[in-house]
């Protein structure tokens, strides 16, 4: 009798716990609900304000203006006499037209070499692979112009790849983004959240799965008492990061998240220069999660929590970013500003929508140049450049474009470790040279900027101090002065200090 009553009471307790799970809104559930409401709120607000000009519930675009923007439909032609729209015979529209030659936009770069390389491509290359190649190369060109980068740029791609793979495999077994792509494991295409319905559907599905998992844990006795979602790691300044993320991070990744928080507090940007595959994407996502989760008031913006974020990355890894976001923190709304994304409409509408909802917009480098005017209309909280060494040429179109964004919160992610013109003037031992280079940059720059804005594990500096200046001018505009002053006061003495015939002062600076 006693045994039965005790088992009944445990059963009751479990039932109660499950019911509590479903009914009570924990802090995390509230946060989640807030995120969804944030997405929905703006649409309802607009439609109630707008009166006659009812807005399109999806993108906040007035229907009136949408009618005016009616796109030209090739199946419709105007009857000259009646002026009415007539539908063209669909059979007639199947006439083949002469091949159109695609004229490449002149971005002032090394086109001829790339084109000739394309012709040399192996005959069995799939069309899709070729397209991807062309896109990424074109993006390279965006940072090219007339400038010829030095150092490892001349090393063949294969050599570079083996070099990078060696670094990654040495460090750990985590595969880098590019390697995963090259290995050809065709991963499933992700659906981004450019449409609100997609986002809500995804969140509902995720919530159900979470609840199921929680039930399972409770029933199996793994997680009887803890309310995992409400646990977090807290830092100075009340920055909180959920333990569900914090516990998954490696030690060096935790250090990085703390460092990013310090930068945030100091209102300045930074360069995250860890080597390939060490999880730069994951570190940045975790940091953003903390900002969103803590919901701290930002005096500069006059708003709470995380605002809209713009991430610029090579076109080949846009999907990868969405995947990582959805894996690490599903409550974020993440959309791709590129034809490879899910959005089929005017890009300006997508930019507007994501911005209004404090979402995350991921764009290619070309996308930034193409939509710069629209993008500049909005107040982005964070601008993050993946493979940020693409802005190493100070005169390139893309460099000039990204430097026009006003936020103090700018990050560069870059894994480039390579030769430098300065390095060649040091000892022949690559290890000690690399170390010297690292300390040198750290030493000199920290004198100018203060220690906190620097965190280099690898060095994104391939081609000397002009490139260094360009990167720093993005993360902390004006801190190193103008380019000419910087070259005169720092670059020249630093370079000359390494020579045998250097003066005492030059050696001191060096
Ligand atoms: N703490 C972690 N736990 C589990 N997986 C992780 C962790 N950190 C990173 N990863 C995984 O390792 C892989 C590589 O990480 P990520 O893409 O962030 O590296 P990266 O430094 O940005 O690479 P790249 O230099 O190629 O851009 C990803 O699949 C990511 O999910």
UniProtKB/TrEMBL annotation:
Database matches in InterPro entries: Helicase_ATP-bd (IPR014001), P-loop_NTPase (IPR027417), SNF2-like_sf (IPR038718), SNF2_N (IPR000330), SNF2_RAD54_helicase_repair (IPR050496)
Q: Could you tell me where the Basic and acidic residues compositional bias lies?
A: 68-83
Q: Where is the composition biased (Basic residues)?
A: 176-187
The Helicase ATP-binding domain, residue ranges: 261-435
> Which Gene Ontology terms cover its molecular function?
ATP binding; ATP-dependent activity, acting on DNA
Gene Ontology cellular component annotations, sorted alphabetically? nucleus
Q: Where is the composition biased (Polar residues)?
A: 43-59, 165-175
Where is the stretch described as Disordered? 43-88, 162-187
Tell me the Gene Ontology biological-process terms attached to this UniProt entry.
transcription-coupled nucleotide-excision repair
Q: In its UniProt entry, what is this protein called?
A: Helicase ATP-binding domain-containing protein
């Amino acid at each position: 009798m006693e045994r039965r009553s005790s088992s009944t009471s445990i059963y009751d307790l479990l039932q109660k716990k499950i019911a509590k799970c479903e009914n009570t809104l924990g802090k995390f559930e509230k946060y989640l609900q807030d995120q969804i409401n944030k997405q929905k709120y703006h649409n309802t607000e607009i439609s109630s304000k707008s009166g006659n000009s009812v807005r399109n519930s999806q993108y906040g675009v007035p229907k009136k203006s949408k009618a005016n923007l009616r796109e030209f439909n090739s199946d419709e032609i105007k009857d000259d006499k009646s002026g009415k729209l007539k539908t063209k015979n669909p059979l007639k529209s199947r006439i083949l037209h002469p091949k159109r030659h695609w004229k490449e936009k002149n971005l002032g770069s090394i086109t001829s070499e790339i084109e000739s390389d394309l012709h040399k491509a192996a005959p069995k290359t799939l069309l899709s692979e070729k397209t991807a190649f062309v896109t990424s190369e074109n993006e390279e060109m965006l940072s090219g112009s007339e400038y010829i980068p030095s150092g490892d740029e001349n090393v063949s791609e294969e050599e570079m790849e083996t070099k990078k793979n060696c670094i990654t495999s040495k460090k750990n077994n985590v595969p880098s983004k590019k390697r995963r792509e090259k290995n050809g494991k065709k991963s499933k295409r992700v659906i981004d959240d450019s449409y609100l319905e997609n986002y809500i559907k995804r969140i509902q599905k995720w919530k159900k799965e979470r609840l199921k998992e929680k039930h399972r844990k409770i029933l199996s006795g793994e997680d009887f008492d803890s309310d995992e979602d409400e646990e977090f790691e807290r830092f100075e300044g009340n920055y909180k990061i959920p333990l569900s993320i914090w516990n998954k991070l490696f030690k060096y990744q935790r250090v990085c998240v703390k460092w990013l928080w310090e930068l945030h507090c100091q209102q300045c940007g930074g360069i995250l220069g860890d080597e390939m595959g060490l999880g730069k994407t994951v570190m940045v996502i975790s940091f953003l999660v903390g900002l969103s989760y803590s919901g701290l008031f930002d005096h500069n913006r006059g708003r709470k929590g995380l605002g809209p974020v713009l991430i610029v990355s090579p076109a080949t890894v846009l999907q990868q970013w969405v995947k990582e976001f959805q894996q690490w923190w599903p409550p974020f709304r993440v959309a791709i500003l590129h034809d490879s994304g899910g959005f089929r409409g005017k890009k300006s509408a997508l930019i507007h929508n994501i911005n209004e909802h404090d979402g995350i917009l991921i764009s290619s480098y070309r996308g930034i140049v193409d939509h710069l005017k629209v993008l500049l209309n909005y107040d982005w909280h964070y601008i993050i450049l993946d493979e940020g060494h693409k802005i190493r040429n100070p005169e390139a179109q893309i460099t000039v474009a990204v430097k026009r964004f006003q936020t103090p919160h700018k990050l560069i992610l870059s894994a480039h470790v390579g030769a430098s013109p300065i390095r060649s003037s040091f000892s022949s031992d690559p290890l000690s040279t690399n170390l010297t280079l690292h300390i040198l940059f750290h030493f000199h720059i920290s004198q100018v900027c203060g220690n906190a804005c620097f965190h280099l594990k690898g060095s994104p500096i391939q081609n000397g101090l002009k490139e260094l200046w360009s990167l720093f001018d993005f993360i902390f505009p004006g801190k190193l002065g103008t380019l000419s002053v910087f070259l005169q006061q720092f670059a020249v003495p630093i370079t000359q200090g390494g020579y045998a015939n250097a003066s005492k002062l030059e050696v001191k600076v060096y």
